[in-house]
Amino acid sequence: MIKIKGHLICKNSEETDLIRQLLPEHTRLTKKEAGCISFDVTETTDPLIWKIEEFFKDKTAFDNHQKRTLASAWGKETSSIIRDYIIFEIT
């Protein structure tokens, strides 16, 4: 299993607004992916920081998620937002 834990860090309120706009569709599509066990991106008490916690069945499922994400509106339009996360492989 693959676990991703960390944060999205926005530089300004425009990036936060962009996350709010695009996240529902990104979440919906991610949860439909084969091998997605759970996917949560939530606001924190700091409006510029969002908590990430994702679980995928295996590395292949996660790699497929990454490929889809890069080609999506989410991937293209949020590419300047800082991603600070750690990937764990749980055996």
From TrEMBL:
Residues 14-74 form the ABM domain. Keywords: Monooxygenase, Oxidoreductase. GO terms for molecular function: monooxygenase activity. The keyword Phosphoprotein does not apply. SUPFAM superfamilies: Dimeric alpha+beta barrel. It comes from the Bacteria. The keyword Oxidoreductase applies. This is Quinol monooxygenase YgiN. It comes from Kosakonia arachidis.
